Amino acid sequence: MNLNRNQNWLQRTAFAVALGVASIAPAVSQTAAKQTQENPLLAEWTGPFGGVPAFDKMDLKYVPEAFDVAIAENLADYEKIANNPEPATFENTIVAMEKAGEKLGRAFTYFGIWGSNLSSPEVRKLQMEYSPKFSEMSSKISQNKKLFERVKKVYDDAKKNPLEQEAQRLVLTTYEGFAMNGANLDDISKKRYAAINKELSSLYTNFANNTLNDEEGYVTYLNKDQLSGLPESFVKAAANTAEQKGKPGQYAVTNTRSSMDPFLTYSDERALREKVWNNYYSRGDNGDEFDNNENIAKILKLRRERVELLGYENYPEWRLQNRMAKTPENAMKLMEAVWPAAIGRVKEEVADMQAVADELGHDITIKPWDYRYYAEKVRKKKYDLDSNEVKQYLQLGNLTEAMFYVAGELFNFKFTALPEGKVPVYHPDVKVWEVNDLTSGEHIGLWYLDPFARPGKRSGAWASQYRSHESHAGKQTVLSSNNSNFIKPAPGEPVLVSWDDATTFFHEFGHALHFLASNVKYPSSNSGVRDYTEFQSQLLERWLSTDEVINKYMKHAKTGEVIPKELIAKIKNAATFNQGFATTEYLASALIDMKIHMADPEGLDPDKFERETLKALGMPDELVMRHRTPHFGHVFSGEGYATAYYGYMWADVLTSDAAEAFKEAPGGFYDKEVADRMVKYLFAPRNAMDPAEAYRKFRGRDAAIDALMRDRGFPVPAADNSSDTSYD
Q1: CA dihedral 284, 287, 291, 297 (to 10 degrees)
Q2: pLDDT tens digits, residue range 121-157?
């Protein structure tokens, strides 16, 4: 079953916790089969490019029937595999599982859009209703004795007579999925395991919906006399947002990072900065019906109980066994190597900020809602660098073209905008491009872009794939998507973004390129190893600051002039500026993620644990975790990043090391030989090759932490060979 494993809502169900595939139940009825033909959420995709999602026919009224019918038909597919009288083989068992459940996959594509981009009370009600049903499906497949026996037979045979590389890895990951999710448990334990997954699925959905409620429910409205310090572009966008919310003449600061961050950076109104800061960092932690602390406590207890059924001491020990880090100790060792340098740098940054505040006669002590504001003033003082000045050269349209240029140079991809109406979209803001090979003209896929924030759209930025590459069943069009939350400007105004937001834009496009560059045989080979899957996208960020992108695409929004070399020099000189803040807020979240899952969950108070653990770590008072526990959706709205948030830093070790491979090459970041190796070994194989082997093929060796520390301007730690911590 080729499901989009990047759909956020799907990851919140226990259905994805197990294997990402369906399970066993009675066959679909003739009546259900007839209904399937009439339901647009289940119908085969038609139209150009091998068929595309019928986003223009989406209607929530079709969801219950679509899921009910697709579940039944999908489960029948697996019943057939489990009861095949022929001896188990790779083709009739593993490959057959890859082909099962097409209708359910299509239904999930549509519902993933509603869950992430078009949420509403009706959508959330359906999420709560169906999460337990998918959990039950997941448990049945992971615990089905006949099916597991067939998978184990293929696994044992492959150990004796290895298959070709991708098939061998697919057998391994399929077997691990069963083994890690209770296939070997006794009947009583299997029943409890299934019950835990079902309860977790509802908790994950509730957690996510609570967070979204607080993102939508807290808006700070400003009057004209409260705009001091704010850039013109922000003021116009805030006025536009307020008008859309029925508050003409006012200015809206929404409870999302894309609105909060610039407000805290530029607003001279300290009391309002504190209010906006509190709104944002208190999401899910307001002591009301949408408070997430009880959800967290329950999730932690259930996760611990579940892995104890499997014989593990704690959740990280179970989760990391097939990740690059292998053990929580290795992940902790990396984080603890960087943490002292990060908090040490924060102390320096706070001292610089306090000095500026004192010089300005501001009788204050730096608080968390002051950090961005005074850091910006320090940036101007130290580097004569004004972030708002930089924004004038970072137009969203130009950045999009810059990404296309990089994709052409590195991947030989050409992006061509499709005429409006050529393929259906789910919102007028969504635009679509066709992707072809620059040399041969061969069609590769489509790229959808949904750039703007709106009610019902979850915060942040992400990438999705509606259809992945696979060659076993014949080449098909890849359907990839990027989703952002830029503030929509007033009509006729350009979309200007910060350097950080431009970096994130490139990052998420890196995920899309990973989808488009895939060259694998089987759908499941497109899944990722969590502490490796961010590496490729983090690497693509490096091309934002290349001379080619700067000179071609960074042009002033009003004059059209290329960004001055002097300003670029300031940006590069300030490259490690505020790394204390950036690294510490991230690492605090990653450390809490690991430590809270290693702690005894009995009677655990999440708020208290967060406070006490951060204090023990020496967390500076002047900033907080990037994602506080009550709204840490990566970890508690699903299991994709649970005890895996460290993976961004693990991947960044690889990123820094790989970037140095380009720096050392004759052609720099556009060196054809290094780029070809990057595509061949780091992008195209996806999960068809062990990540450690793939990286060694690219670099000729394992990565080390030294490049990361150099990138962040931190002291390089002395060598420590006490355990295996190669970042391969």
Answers
A1: 110
A2: 999 999 999 989 998 888 888 888 999 999 999 999 9
Nearest to 239 by CA among 254, 229, 249: 249
Surface-to-core class of residue 411, CB atoms within 10 Å of its CB (0-12 exposed, 13-18 middle, 19+ buried): buried
The rounded distance, in Å, linking the Cα atoms of 650 and 535 is 8
Spatial distance between the Cα atoms of 137 and 125, rounded to a whole number of angstroms:
19
If DSSP codes are grouped into helix, strand and coil, which group holds residue 306?
Answer: helix
| Contacts for 87 with CB less than 8 Å, ≥ 6 apart | 153
Helices (H) and strands (E) in the chain, counts: 30, 7
Q: What whole-number distance in Å separates Cα of residue 518 and Cα of residue 506? A: 18
Taking 90 as the threshold, does the pLDDT of residue 74 lie above it? no
What distances in angstroms separate CA 633 from CA 113, 167, 474, 651, one per listed residue? 17, 33, 36, 20
CB 526 within 8 A of CB 465: yes
What pLDDT digit, counting tens, does each position of 325-368 carry? Answer: 999 999 999 999 999 999 999 999 999 999 999 999 999 999 99
The CA-based dihedral angle spanning residues 182, 185, 189, 195, taken in that order and rounded to the nearest 10 degrees = 20
Domain assignments of the chain as residue spans, ordered by start: 8-194, 218-281, 396-573
Enter the CATH code of domain 396-573. 1.10.1370.40
Backbone CA torsion sign across 371, 372, 373, 376: positive
Q: How far is C-alpha 552 from the geometric centre of its chain's CA atoms?
A: 29
pLDDT of residue 135: 85
Q: What is the mean pLDDT of residues 514-518?
A: 96
CA separation (Å) from 375 to 161, 318, 341? 60, 41, 18
- The 3-state secondary structure of 535-552 reads HHHHHHHHHHHCHHHHHH
**Using one digit for the tens of pLDDT, what is the confidence trace for 250-299?**
999 999 998 999 999 999 999 999 999 999 999 999 999 999 999 999 99
Q: Which CATH number fits domain 8-194: 1.10.1370.40, 1.25.40.10, 3.40.50.11720, 3.40.980.10?
A: 1.10.1370.40
Output phi, psi for 247, to 5 deg. Answer: -125, 60
Can you tell me the distance from the alpha carbon of 509 to that of 503, in angstroms, rounded to the nearest whole number? 10
Calculate ∠ Cα 507-509-515, nearest 5°. Answer: 120
The per-residue DSSP string of 175-188 comes to HHHHHHTTTTS-HH
CA distance 638 to 303: 11
Coil, strand or helix: which one is 609? helix
**Range from 26-35, 310-319, 330-339 carrying the lowest mean pLDDT:** 26-35
What type of residue is 284? G
